[in-house]
Amino acid sequence: MEFGFPWWLRVEHFLNIIFLSFLVRSGIEILGTYPKLYRSQHTVPGTAWSQFTVQRAAKHKYYTVGGEYDDYSPRISLPGRGLLGLGRYWHFITVTGFVTSWVIYIVLLFGTGQWRRYIPTSLDTFVQAGRDMVSYLAFVVPEAADGAPFNAIQQLSYGFVFLVLTPLVILTGVFQSPAVANYFSRITRMLGGRQVIRTVHFLCMIGYIVFTVIHVAMVILHGYGYETSKIVFGHTDLPVAGGVVFTIGLALVVLLHVIATRWTLAEGRAVEKLHNIVVRPWTNLLYHLPARMHYDRDNVSGKDVVLKNTTQNFRGSGRPPETPEYLALMANGYEDDYVLEIGGYVERPMSLTIRELRELAEGHSQTTLHHCVQGFTSIGKWRGISVSDLLDLAGPLPGATDVVFMSFQDMGRDDALYEGGTYYESTPMIEARMPQTLIAFDLNDEGEIPAKNGAPVRLRTETSTGFRNLKWLERIEVVNRYDIIVEGRGGYFEDVDFYDRNQLI
Amino acid sequence: MMEDQHSPALRQGVDFRGTPNATERVTEHLRPGKKRAPLLRYIRINLPRTTRLLLLFVIAVIGMASATIALSDYEPFPFAAPLLWCVVVAAVIFVAVGLLTKNRIWTAGLGIAAASTLIYVGGILGDAPYVWNGASITLAAVWNITLFASLGYALLYWALRYGMIVAAPDDQHFMD
């Protein structure tokens, strides 16, 4: 068959320049908020295989991971300045286009027989690719085989990028989602655990960058006008026009980045709206994937570094409440003084002590993987009672739609990194009713939860990223609408920063 | 001068007093008046054994490629063969020392890479085994590998000195 360069292939090539460049820049933004990569499923301090920060490790640190942000330049990352939420918005908006485009491309490749341009039909292609590599090293440009659009090494490298690297980056991207990773928990472990998946995702990005550098070098080596004419017009007859048009196209992509960066830094809420239109339709589907993790006790973070007190290694984030009330609770060991209130849109408002919670829980526990939105993970065994059981006790009134969790923490008072406001989160009833959405009062069978991890009682919403797992829980309120609470976005970080209430990815 | 003889931490030599990052964020490599460090300062890879093996591998490639050229009928310039064999012997010693000891031999490796590059330059001025000089494609590729591997080693050496990578027995000593 005559392969040529059909129009859809040329369009896809141009779209990929946009998608990949946006994905790389927003990906760097996401990396910058926890700029460390690991080789095991834990994020044990000191075991990273790479770091991308110039910040010196803090002494006397209480694991305020928010302080580990590195604000990369907006020239490198999108949007830069350590704005994780907006970086995530761009990553997911672009991912929607990238994956859609890739699926359409694959369908067209196989539907039109064009797959032969990438997939070798004979083992001779591999032998020829070796010869081609030797030719390049000898400064001799190898010719394409008769009827083929590229030489063998080009064929194999393009095939690798489309049919190996891209599925791998999509797979490892999908498994960054707490909802997916915790629903398909066995696959997460088979892939090496969340941190290994994160590392592979990063290496895929490096793969794209290396490929792009070599690809551009080869285009120049083979003849810029000749090659760009193929990808612009589908033939080699107009090398000058091809070069000019393609260069203008590249300039437009650069302009698009400049506009997107400035727009994001100036109008974050507008980017949020775009995200909600493009991304929410498919992220809402993830509410159908309730977490169903059952890690072994041996998986608990800290075991692999032989620490007696494994809870030391369950990272925390944020500062505990600094009120006389909370400090008094802490001083008295919580047990006699702490009371969890459950009220709002329920038939039977109630308050429960830790002892009563323990009795109601009947020894129930779950060993689960915690996904911080910044990127760290820890595995811990939590004892507690499911929110669903508590709701059954309280009896939500007809029309109750959401559950609001209030913390003792006031961000402005307790954490120098943020502005004031009580920390709260709201979950839709579907998430609150999930089997592993838990009110926890014990971590790793070591007694009460430490202050850094949310003592005495905290929320576990295993399908969402970490900040929605509210710590230092004071009160639960069932409501029939959440959009009239504070700024109406469903939680503290949703209100003051740029995070979607749907944190299933 | 120890101020508090009763402090267990101070007696252990742990003294964080006056350490800025005990109380505030401390960033390194910032130039005066700049908010951010040079881009490459942000990259730190901590794979010491892999890096050590990689450095040894690159020198081994230089040695093997040089031996191939020396054994061929092609002489890049008069008396190139003894020089090529010197590079081969140095590469063998380098790899052996690198595998059998924990010595930091990376500057010596740079000498081998530099010698190999000089031989390549000599070939350009003389009669290098390029295809257009009558050499086979394979021999021309091997000849160019001596250059690419040498430049690769120089790049790795620079990254090592810059702090982007570390080779065993050294370590980045990440604290977190």
UniProtKB/TrEMBL annotation, chain A:
> What's one GO BP annotation on this UniProt entry?
respiratory electron transport chain
Q: Name one GO molecular function term.
A: electron transfer activity
Membrane topology, as annotated: Multi-pass membrane protein
Grouped into one coarse class, the protein's main location is: membrane
Cellular localization per UniProt? Cell membrane
InterPro entries according to UniProt: Cyt_b561_bac/Ni-Hgenase, Di-haem_cyt_TM, OxRdtase_Mopterin-bd_dom, OxRdtase_Mopterin-bd_sf
Domain (Cytochrome b561 bacterial/Ni-hydrogenase): residue spans on this chain: 5-227
Pfam families found in the cross-reference section: Ni_hydr_CYTB, Oxidored_molyb
Q: Which UniProt keywords apply?
A: Cell membrane, Membrane, Transmembrane, Transmembrane helix
All copies of the Oxidoreductase molybdopterin-binding domain together span 335-481
The transmembrane segments are 89-110, 156-175, 196-220, 240-260
Fetch the SUPFAM superfamilies from UniProt: Oxidoreductase molybdopterin-binding domain, Transmembrane di-heme cytochromes
Instruction: Identify the domain of life.
Output: Bacteria
| GO cellular-component term (any) | plasma membrane
| Protein name from the UniProt record | Oxidoreductase
The record lists the organism as: Arthrobacter echini
From TrEMBL, chain B:
TM region positions: 53-71, 77-100, 105-125, 137-160
Question: Could you tell me the keywords of this UniProt record?
Answer: Membrane, Transmembrane, Transmembrane helix
User: Mind telling me what this protein is named?
Assistant: Uncharacterized protein
